[in-house]
Sequence to fold (474 residues):
Amino acid sequence: MNKPQPTLDPSTLWAARAWLPGGWQDDVLLRTDSGGHWLTVQAGQPCPDGAQILAGPALPGLVNGHSHAFQRAFAGLAERSEQAGDDFWSWRDRMYRVAAAVDPDSLQAIATQLYGELLHGGYTQVCEFHYLQHKADGTPYADPLAMSQALIAAARQVGIGLTLLPVLYERAGFELPGLRADQLRFNLQAEAVVQTQRAVQNQARMRTDGTLNAGLAVHSLRAARPASVHLLARLAEGHDGPIHIHVAEQSAEVRDCLAHTGRRPLAWLANEGLLDARWQLVHATHAEADEIAAVAAAGSGVVVCPSTEANLGDGLTDLSAWLAAGVPLALGSDSQVCRSWREELRWLDYGQRLSLRQRNVAAAPKQGMPSTAARLWTTALDGGRRSAGLPSWGLQVGARADLLVVDHDDASLAGIPPDQILDALVFSSPGRPWRDVMVAGEWRIQAHQQPGSQAAQADFVRVMQSLWPQASGS
Fold:
């Protein structure tokens, strides 16, 4: 007689190979608890009866440290120039037309499409830098949190974790007292930022799986008065979540800040005594040595967005200096021209190679880290955790039960030695998306299939067909 097959236990997984803190380990047993967190993570274990055997090597999901979901509706549609001199600022004016056409329903459809794509790209948590607060003319919605709720609903539908970051935004530039007509819907003062954060955090407390939390954000020094930044910092006393800010992305922004405050943006934040471990400095593209040292001393993190920074012509940050200083580095998808962390990591290093005319710039063989991909990956894992304000992350006991399963049928990995799978995942392209994706102990993608993705894309297409004629002025 045939031996009966044991019933599969959905809370017990077994991986022939998995990335644990410290690197690859073999024969890894993983158990989840009822709240969607890792209860057991042990290497060197035989596969127990009833365990789900993972179809390939397993890695933790990654936190996407910086996202503007609505800009997914603009990805690929700003790549023509009708006149010479296209730059960040002309891109921004066109992006504002898209922002003006989005309402809560369309934002939810756009975000649902994006968040599903981010799951396929290996992100299981997204930090949403959220500044579309009101109607296009600045009039509040009947529910002041309507746009926030659209993002929360999209993340819940897809199953991705969400860190919502309401944004302090009150002026159009250093020398301007208020907002432009096309920025009125962004208006949010420091008190309202904190109120929004607390309202979302109250919703988060009703969940047991840790898939929702909220932090605070300042759009940029040009968009917030110094007194308002300090007020937000005072209101945030006792707040242990993240505080994000766009900073030093464009050289023109650095010049303007220097002209109006006497200091460069990063130096101003440090000199004002604002920085601490909660602060996440988005881009920090144009940073000098003393600024990097000040950020490191404060324990703040940096969120780099390589594909967006390339697309917008921002420039290249000093990756080697940030790494040498031990500053936590997270990855962000920002404008959504790329939705895969593998490509972001690849271009983070490739930008340095092109600039310095060297290879494997991020490798640190003298520190026992010869793999560029492994060093960048481990840095992004911890930096991403910090950017979302999460107490733990990765395949370790107590962390949320998120993981990615490599597709063994990916041609870009064919014949690759097991110890160099991560190198090939990042630097051998193009590669297939992740075979399986788990968030908080629940499979969100299995065998490349994501429930509801076809309906979500159909909704997104309908929104684009309606939105784009408004945004393009046609």
Summary: The first strand starts at residue 12 and ends at 20.
